[in-house]
Amino acid sequence: MGHGHGHGQPTSASERYLGRLAITFAVTTAFMVAELVVGFATSSLALISDGAHMVTDVVGVGLALAAILAARRARQHAGRTFGLYRAEVLAALANAVLLFGVAGYVIVEAVGRFQDPPAVPGLPVLLVAVGGLVANTCAFLLLREGAKESLNLRGAYLEVLADLVGSVGVLVSGLVTLLFGWRYADPVMGVAIGLFVLPRTWTLARRSLRILFQHAPERLDVEQLTTGLRSLAGVREVHDVHVWTLTSGMEVASAHVAVEPGGDQAGILAAAQRLLAEEYQIEHATLQLETERAADGCRELRW
């Protein structure tokens, strides 16, 4: 006896911030072009590194937008029973890979420049850094709230945060170069930006992989959840419990619940759904209520 519990077509956290993501994409694209053009024209590694981070912003935010639109469209397809919500998680993982690559490149390039740092004109770097700082601050504020709910948005948010720090670093580098002519300011700041990005990127990659491998949410104790279901009146045994995250803010569960002979199955089902929704915030759960004979058949499965 199988029962599903849900509330129609769900809306992911990312979709609620689609407009903000689109504005972020436009802003970061404009300043990415400006930073790269001036960076290569002035040989500023700090500016090139910040511009490269903005390239990952543009690609990352573009992936996030594409993932949201794909997930929304996939809901119309009967064969995709879970839609394409996992596309958002893949986008977050792709962002992490891009950030790893850019951070590694900047660190290697900066270390090489310590031997013979090129002369970098401070004023153009300073002016573009101010513009980049304004752009990244706007993008940061647009994505900050959504990053708390969506892993996809968090990937874009972390990239914007890295660029915000990078813009501050470029600003400091430009000021030091302009005022003191210290050539090491640019490569030092490049290394600092790269080191700032790496641990945050690792966290994003780890969270994305947990979802793709269908691990239970970190906040949730599966044994405690199973014990809670088993303690409900009329329940004899609970097995084959699975809890996983479809995408950020959308957690799913399934379980087989063996009931006592003659038990109120409708009441048991309602109590189990209420327990999952109220205590574990799992609104979509598929629970199979079984008799003793059916439960014995389940235990014979080898996987």
UniProtKB/TrEMBL annotation:
Q: Where are the transmembrane segments?
A: 21-48, 54-71, 83-108, 120-143, 155-182, 188-205
Q: Which residues form the Cation efflux protein transmembrane domain?
A: 22-212
Keywords (alphabetical) are: Ion transport, Membrane, Transmembrane, Transmembrane helix, Transport
Gene Ontology molecular function:
zinc ion transmembrane transporter activity
Q: What Pfam families does the entry give? A: Cation_efflux (PF01545), ZT_dimer (PF16916)
GO CC terms on record?
plasma membrane
Q: Where is the Cation efflux protein cytoplasmic domain?
A: 218-291
Q: Please indicate which superkingdom the organism of origin belongs to.
A: Bacteria
Cell location? Membrane
The UniProt entry lists membrane topology as: Multi-pass membrane protein
Family, per the entry? Belongs to the cation diffusion facilitator (CDF) transporter (TC 2.A.4) family. SLC30A subfamily.
Q: What is this protein called?
A: Cation transporter
Its ancestry begins with: Bacteria, Bacillati, Actinomycetota, Actinomycetes, Pseudonocardiales
